[in-house]
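Is this the right way to post structure tokens for a design question? Let me know if I should format differently. Anyway, here goes:
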């Protein structure tokens, strides 16, 4: 077995793993979409829920900083 074949075999394994993970990612994305649709059907706002999910991923300090900057910008525009 030549070294070129080993590299090609290894590359093919990586490609196949990536393809399998991409398919799983698509399935998970579809599941998430279904949950948002279910929540919307019961009266929740998916747009707001997405914002909450994004905020919950942030560190508290980063979230507080973002909120302070937002308030500053809103005040500067006369929207606060």
């Amino acid at each position: 077995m030549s070294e070129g074949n080993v590299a090609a075999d290894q590359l093919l394994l990586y490609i196949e793993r990536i393809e399998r993970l991409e398919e799983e990612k698509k399935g998970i994305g579809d599941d998430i979409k279904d949950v948002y649709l279910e929540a919307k059907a019961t009266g929740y706002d998916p747009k707001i829920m997405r914002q909450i999910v994004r905020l919950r991923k942030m560190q508290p300090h980063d979230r507080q900083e973002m909120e302070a900057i937002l308030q500053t910008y809103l005040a500067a525009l006369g929207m606060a």
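Format looks fine. Someone answered above. Worth noting: The mean pLDDT is 95. The chain is about 85% helix and 0% strand.
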